[in-house]
Amino acid sequence: MEHQFNVQGMTCGHCEKAVRQALLAVDPEASVQIDRTSGDVKVQSTATHDALAAAIQEEGYTVA
Questions:
Q1: CA atoms of 50 and 52, how far apart (whole Å)
Q2: The CATH fold of domain 2-63
Q3: What's the whole-model pTM score?
Q4: CA-wise closest residue to 42 among 25, 27, 30
Q5: What is the mean pLDDT of residues 9-23?
Q6: Nearest Cα to 26, choosing from 46, 8, 42?
Q7: Please, which pLDDT band fits residue 25 given cuts at 50, 70 and 90?
Q8: Which of 30, 47, 48, 62 could form an SS bridge with 8, CB 3.0 to 4.6 Å?
Q9: What is the DSSP string of the chain?
Q10: Phi first, then psi: what are they for 20, rounded to 5°?
Q11: Would you give the distance in Å from CA 13 to the centre of its chain?
């Protein structure tokens, strides 16, 4: 299932890496595409939308 998020607060490569790692911690098999300039994050995963959003928020980013 594809999940889409708008993540606010990603400003650099380190931010992008933190979000990617948080998502992969929830589902190691997930496919993650991040465009940090727009904040768009697309995740192909079997995990729930809420679980993925919570992982991003736990890293300190806002999910719109």
A1: 5
A2: Alpha-Beta Plaits (3.30.70)
A3: 0.94
A4: 30
A5: 96
A6: 46
A7: very high
A8: 62
A9: -EEEEEEE---SHHHHHHHHHHHHHH-TT-EEEEETTTTEEEEE-SS-HHHHHHHHHHTT-EE-
A10: -60, -45
A11: 13
